[in-house]
Amino acid sequence: MSSLASPPHAASALGDAEVLELRRDFPALSAEVNGQPLAYLDSGATAQRPVSVIDAEREFLVTSNAAVHRGAHTLAGLATEAFEDARATLADFLGADPDEIVWTSNATDALNLVAYGIGNASRGRGGEAARRFALAAGDEILVTEAEHHANLIPWQELAFATGATLRFIPVDDDGIYTLADAAAALTERTRIVAIGHVSNVTGFIAPVAEIAALAHERGALVVLDACQSAPHRRLNVAELGVDFLALSGHKMLGPSGVGVLWGRGELLNALPPFRTGGSMISTVTMTEATYLPAPQRFEAGTQPVSQAVALAEAVRYLERVGLERIDERENELAQRMLAGLALIDGIRIVGPAAGVPRAGLVSFDVDGVHAHDVGQYLDAQGIAVRVGHHCAQPLHRRLGLTATTRASAYLYTTTEEIDRFLAAVAEVRPYFGVATPAETSISTVTGASA
């Protein structure tokens, strides 16, 4: 039984006491690693799942498992109802219509669906309605230098296939850019703008609505990678002003193997499908086929039904806690990490400066110690972080780094875990012999923003 039997007061802060209650819903967080209590600071990669989400998927598999939109038997009807109820839940979560929600295997799949659909339109598929998407030599696709590979490589491939030019909004030495930078990169030939809402490396929060307005003035489509924002902050597609949005279930308390593409209805119904086969067709002859309206036209084959049901429960869990409260809490934890890391010699932090709102993650470089060694040292203390280039090689190259260490918080992260992390980071350089133990005590570091 979840500890969230009823929604908390919307105005109350999400404090340590409530976080400790929430943690009871997450079995994985009670584990020990290397003899230490697990401090899971890798939610930016994959979030842990509450019992209610695990139970929702299991309950569906036990009582309602069947192929959806196929068959007239009772079980198929129950499965289809659960599947479409999950779609409606995700639509409400985004302020959208259910017919604008397309199930995918993850956000990468969703972004590829859009890019390859536009590629098909550029080859003449989709008829008159799809001509609005067609690209040709001289057209421009605009991304940012900070994109995750999932929101970069599909557009590289689309540019290669169509002759369009791929351009990017540059970032500064901290890995961030401004609205003015975006405006300067837009031209009259810009046809697509694809950006991440929140950088998975820097925690930078993009001015999405403002960029979308500028892009639409030039007639460009806007595609938003919301993987790092949907789990943590309230989203409304109308307020964001974008045309397509992708998210992934496993980052927002849900299962792996399921994601969502949202698109404006008229665009989805005009976009040629990327994946074809059963369940997405209207009629088929031996020489041609016609396709169903969205969203079914993009849902060929067997769908991730139990995963969709579980993702809907994850959304309900997040809404019971309150997205605004989660966002506020994570910003506080991020500022605590920034303040503590700033007191440790040899640490270079990337992303927005202290005091500037950011997502609940911080990436940093430890002078003289490779990120993989930092990660292994922290793991020995029971602290799980992400190391590497975080699927953002161009951004790391711009920053002059091959890899960084990233700590990411979520609604179940405690202040004590952040302080354990800071204390352990302070020990890294002395442990590897590249610095003497700092005169600043560990208690001073961890109490920096108490």
UniProtKB/TrEMBL annotation:
GO terms for molecular function: cysteine desulfurase activity; pyridoxal phosphate binding. It catalyses: (sulfur carrier)-H + L-cysteine = (sulfur carrier)-SH + L-alanine. Transmembrane segments: none annotated. CDD domains: SufS_like. The keyword Calcium does not apply. Catalyzes the removal of elemental sulfur and selenium atoms from L-cysteine, L-cystine, L-selenocysteine, and L-selenocystine to produce L-alanine. PANTHER family: CYSTEINE DESULFURASE, CYSTEINE DESULFURASE 1, CHLOROPLASTIC. Belongs to the class-V pyridoxal-phosphate-dependent aminotransferase family. Csd subfamily. This is Cysteine desulfurase. It comes from Microterricola viridarii.
